[in-house]
Amino acid sequence: MGIINRTLKLSQVQKHTKLQIYNTLALPTILYRSETWKIREEDNTMLSAEIKFMTITVKYTWQDNKTNENILSKLKIHPVAKKIQNYRNK
User: Fold this and answer.
1) Is 6 inside a domain boundary?
2) Which of 9, 21, 32, 73 has its CA 20 to 30 A from that of 59?
3) Is residue 8 assigned to a domain?
4) Residue 80 in domain
């Protein structure tokens, strides 16, 4: 994921492209690996890396005081923890 992270941090990459990469590479990997996890409360903090990526994608800083819900709603996506729950309930 290091190469993906470096690529996505480039300012020349458009938001739409970053979301495409996230949806086609990162999210399926997370969902596949989640099949063997027993999700605990501590895992939710690890999954918060998604929020960090999304914050960079919408070009917010911590000084903008945006909540996670604001960021996710701006990008029109759901938190990865919720996606894992939906994925497991199928």
Assistant:
1) no
2) 32
3) no
4) yes
Q: How far apart are the C-alpha atoms of 56 and 71, rounded to whole Å?
A: 10
What pLDDT, on a 0 to 100 scale, did the predictor assign at position 5?
A: 63
In a domain, 86, yes or no: yes
pLDDT tens-digit map of 23-45:
888 788 777 777 777 767 666 66
Which pTM was predicted? 0.59
Residue type, 79: P
Q: Which residues, in sequence order, are CB contacts of 47 under 8 Å at separation 6+? A: 30, 79, 80, 81, 84
Structural domain span for residue 85:
44-90
Q: State the CB neighbour count (10 A cutoff) for residue 86.
A: 11
Amino acid at 80: V
The total number of structural domains in the chain stands at 1
The reported pLDDT for the residue numbered 78 is 80
- Number of residues assigned to the chain: 90
Using alpha carbons, select from 6, 86, 4, 90 the residue that is nearest to residue 39.
Answer: 86
